[in-house]
UniProtKB/TrEMBL annotation:
Originating species: Streptomyces cellulosae
Residue ranges constituting the M23ase beta-sheet core domain according to the UniProt record: 77-174
PANTHER family for the chain: L-ALA--D-GLU ENDOPEPTIDASE, PEPTIDASE-RELATED
Key words, A-Z: Hydrolase, Signal
One of the record's GO molecular function terms: hydrolase activity
Gene3D superfamilies documented for this protein: Glucose Permease (Domain IIA)
Protein name: Murein hydrolase activator EnvC family protein
Residues annotated as signal peptide: none
Top-level taxon: Bacteria
InterPro entries in UniProt: Cell_wall_metabolism_enzyme (IPR050570), Dup_hybrid_motif (IPR011055), M23ase_b-sheet_dom (IPR016047)
Parts of the chain that traverse the membrane: none
Length: 200
């Protein structure tokens, strides 16, 4: 009787133990050298509010390359999105905030904006390559022009703006700032009016 009770107890417990063991193995996965893999930065941040009021460039620019979070802190990836934009295109702040940096980095113009009311540390957007028209410490409104697309310095085959988003040292998907209606807004289309003939 005792043996049956013991076997029955294990029958109910082994799935839980298997699950815990699997989680432990995945967490402690090792590289060939035996060192544990560094933890990857958070892929998504549910605290990112959809406070964007405009795209950085154009009305609905083509996304030439999307956000590809690195598997490790220093791993390969694409820490932002590339938006198609010809040289001279106005670049706008997607949301209200304060300019935390405006200047050159490795020969490219860069603007960073700390977004107001987004917690500690605050969310920070970056735009490059941009010929800046704002200064560090300046308050900007959503949609305000912060510069124009530079003709050189882009890492895209065609001219583009690299748009990034960070909270502290963690890179996030900048598209998560845009509300759904703005992400999917396409060109305006006129619908026919019933009873009114089409122009000849």
């Amino acid at each position: 009787m005792r043996a049956m009770r013991y076997a029955g107890g294990w029958g109910r417990t082994w799935p839980v133990l298997l699950l815990l063991l699997t989680a432990a193995l995945l967490t402690c996965a090792a590289r060939p050298g035996g060192d544990p893999l560094p933890l990857a930065p958070t892929a998504t941040d549910t605290t990112v509010p959809a406070i964007g009021r405009t795209w950085p460039v154009g009305l609905r620019p083509a996304v030439l390359r999307g956000w590809e979070p690195p598997a490790t802190t220093y791993g390969r990836g694409h820490r932002g999105v590339d938006l198609s934009a010809p040289p001279g295109t106005p670049v706008r702040a997607v949301a209200a905030g304060r300019v935390s940096f405006a200047g050159g980095v490795a020969g490219r113009g860069v603007v960073s904006v700390e977004l107001a009311g987004t917690g500690e540390p605050p969310l920070r957007t970056t735009y490059e390559p941009v010929r800046t028209s704002v200064k560090k410490g300046q308050e900007v409104a959503a949609g305000e022009v912060i510069g124009t697309v530079e003709p050189t310095g882009s890492h895209c085959a065609a001219t583009c703006v690299h748009w990034g988003l960070r909270r502290g040292e963690t890179y996030l998907d900048p598209l998560s700032l845009l509300p759904r209606w703005l992400l999917h807004r396409g060109p305006s289309r006129l619908l026919p009016v019933i009873g009114v003939p089409l122009p000849g």
